[in-house]
Design a protein that fits this description.
The chain is α+β, with helices and mostly antiparallel strands and 124 residues long. It has a single domain (2-123), classed as 2-Layer Sandwich (60s Ribosomal Protein L30, Chain: A). It is built from two helices and six strands; from the N terminus they run βββαβαββ. The protein has helices at 46-63, 84-95; strands at residues 2-4, 19-22, 25-31, 71-78, 101-106, 116-123. It has a six-stranded mixed sheet, with helices on one face.
Length: 124
């Protein structure tokens, strides 16, 4: 197994890694809309937050030598399922032609009060 770390995505804020590569897969921890340089949250709405989340997720994937076109599964955590359509539009924009398996769930609370968090599994 190999631990992945990049300064282009927020550092882990607990006892975990940004990602782990093993068995031909990259297992990415959930990303929130945090600016990796300042540590500040980005965006007041789910659209802006989803853009930052996916920017962070791509940085982790790239550090592992992969990208969105190799993602096999994502999980989207939303604070409010009413934000699904807005999140989905941004997600489609970033994913391009990639259509990984995905689950989207509403949760009662996310770290730092954000509106969206996304994790991923990708081939390397």
């Amino acid at each position: 197994m190999k631990t992945i770390h990049t300064d282009n995505a927020p550092a882990a804020i607990g006892p975990y890694s940004q990602a782990i590569v093993g068995g031909g897969f990259c297992f990415c921890s959930g990303q929130i809309p945090m600016d990796p340089t300042t540590g500040e949250l980005v965006g007041q709405d789910v659209t802006a937050q989803t853009h930052q989340v996916l920017k962070n997720l791509r940085a982790v994937l790239n550090a592992a030598g992969t990208d969105f076109d190799r993602v096999t599964k994502c999980t989207v955590f939303l604070q409010d399922m009413d934000d699904f359509a807005a999140m989905n539009a941004v997600y489609a924009e970033h994913m391009g032609d990639a259509r990984p398996a995905r689950a989207a769930v509403q949760v009662s609370k996310l770290p730092r009060g954000v509106l969206v968090e996304i994790d991923a599994v990708a081939l390397v």
